[in-house]
Amino acid sequence: MPSDAIAAIVDQWKRERPDLDAAPMLVIGRLFRLTQTLDQHLRPPFAAAGLGSGDFDLLAALRRAGEPHVLSAGDLSRAVLVTTGAITKRVDRLEARGLVSRSVDETDSRGRLVTLTAEGVALTDQLIAVHLDNQRRLLAGLGEDERAELAGLLERLALTLPEHGD
After folding, report:
1. 120-147: b or e for each residue (b if 16 or more CB lie within 10 Å)?
2. Residue whose C-alpha is closest to residue 27's, from 159, 162, 154
3. Which of 70, 92, 107, 111 has the fewest CB within 10 Å, making it most exposed?
4. Judging by DSSP bridges, how do beta strands 70-72 and 100-105 pair with one another?
């Protein structure tokens, strides 16, 4: 009896195409399924705070930058791994809520700087605590050593993969 849906899929491929090794699906398929499941459990607190998809990532990047919580659009794009166009849309939404402000970069008049407001700092600090508690809860099925081992394995896997666009 397969242990989960991915194991069942691999078993089906073994039956239908025994000449192929479907074992990579046990890792990649589970990573995809876990990503979807985790996202469903992690996003509700952000939605409850009125944040759209990715908005918290931008706020958190600014908060992690330290005082005075200012980054350029390019720096934000690299920090949250999305295009500068996506950053602009997120900043527009967050600026309308008073969570960030935008200003001209004094060193480059074409550049724009995004600053986390005091309200943005307070909301981000509140949500990161909720987010980390949520993550801890989701990982509760693994022991501390298992979490550390999994983190190390995922890091190793990430280091072996080509960067996006390579």
Report:
1. bbebbeebeeebeebeeeeeeeeeeeee
2. 154
3. 107
4. unpaired
Chain-centroid distance, C-alpha 50: 18
Strand order in the sheet with 108-116: 70-72, 108-116, 100-105
The tokens describing 91, both together, are 């900043």
Cα 147 to chain centroid, rounded: 18
Residue with token string 């666009």: 165
pLDDT tens, position by position, 110-138 = 778 999 999 999 999 999 999 999 999 99
Q: Tell me the mean pLDDT in the region 69-94.
A: 92
Query: pLDDT value at position 164?
Result: 60
What the block records as the tokens of 137 is 């809860």
Give CA–CA dist 117/101, Å, rounded: 7
pTM for the predicted model, two decimal places: 0.84
**CB-neighbour burial class of residue 85 (10 A; exposed 0-12, middle 13-18, buried 19+):** exposed
CATH class as words, domain 51-123? mainly alpha
